[in-house]
Amino acid sequence: MTGHPSTWRPSTGHPTPETLATSELTPKEREHAASCASCQEEMAAWQNLADAARTAFDTPAPRYEALLGRYRLGERTPLPPPLGLRRSIRLVAALTVAQCRLLPRSLAATTVLGLAATTVLAAMSHDETIGQAVFGLGVSLVFQLGALTACAARTDPRLELTTTMPVSPAVVFAARIVIVLAADVLLSWAASGLAIAAGLPATLPDLVAGWFGQAMLAASVGVVAAVRWSPTTGAGASAAAWIAAVATAVPGFGVGFGLLERTGHLLEPLTTTNPLNLTLSLALLTVAVLTMHHGTEPGHETT
Amino acid sequence: MDSDDDLLAGVARGDQESLRALYDRYTPGMLRLVRRMTPSAAVAEELLQEAWLAVWRSAGSFRGESSVTSWLYGVTRRQALGQLRRPQPPTTALDETHSPPDPGPRVEDAAIARVARDSLADAVRDLPAHLQEVVLLVLVDDLPYPEVAQVLGVPVGTVKSRMFQARRNLAAALSSSAADPRLPS
Q: Is the ipTM of this complex over 0.85?
């Protein structure tokens, strides 16, 4: 067939059912249908079905005035005046307190336990490079746990509250992520000090630089994937970022396996603390917040 | 006559006459959509009202990536699901994920083409809701399959599969009612 091959049934030479159902025939299809008894029968079946369906659900629609007349739609509600500095600070404080209360309590316990285990493991290592690598990978896992918990909104009924607050859900989400990541940074910083005090041979700036970049990037990748697709996808993306961090942080990883070794070298700028890594993390978190903003509009087009 | 896009742009600017024109064009279809989600006519009207208020509020977010029709139906469906507290993510049965094999012209067509409209309407009312939905969107609201897929949040293959299933169910229902002497023909 020529012209519109996708609208013809390859096996029978008739137009497809959807073409006949919607009666959007090309001239060639119309010419075929005019001389084809089975196509005419199928079109008659669709037409009869359309008429029957219209009859089955024939409900008189209410008049515009009856349904929407009492709303003064023509008058847009004026925007509220900007909050002053004092009211803004009060709002941020209230938002922070509310989000702290809404976070699962088990998250705090799991974070502290994870950091404690990481500190012990790192301190037990007497090699500076291995100790730092172990500490960085452990902290990275803790960051991912916090970030993914913060954006599992669709599975946590407590977070329905965020959609009823007089603040944009995107702002609420941003506050939630910032709270979790800030708490993780502070606790990891403290754990770094403890690990050094417990015998890890490293300086504090080196140790912090060893985990900060890779943990932020892994968490950001997970957050974007979780918000855009699903928490499970977010967990998968985080795991992939963590494995990339393993490939660059563990000395000798992939040696003898050319591809793995080259991959480790390629990913190194992304999994260490540097301006590129931090900019990328910040950009990914911004994308996540913007995605949350678009996804909460009543008329958003992604169904 | 203004195009749908022009009218929606007017709504986004706050023009109530544009809203009224869109209302007159699309309310019957939107009402059919919500009537299948609730047995109560009063609740259906409330859902319809919420849908139009959402359209009024969010017309500015229409980016022209779909047709106005499927955007309006999408807003209506999401609003109704939200109001009914049935946040159903789009689900697709495994056997619906691919387009059905092309069956070619069948005896089912003859049964559906010749049956009395009232009997066929009764059979349509008895279809499962997810099949009714696609039959009405395709045949009554004249939406192309890709737009129906967009409104329902399912793949196009699923729409084809549901149409195929609906036609098969209807033919089966019609032949069994014709064979049952207790039922009126």
A: no
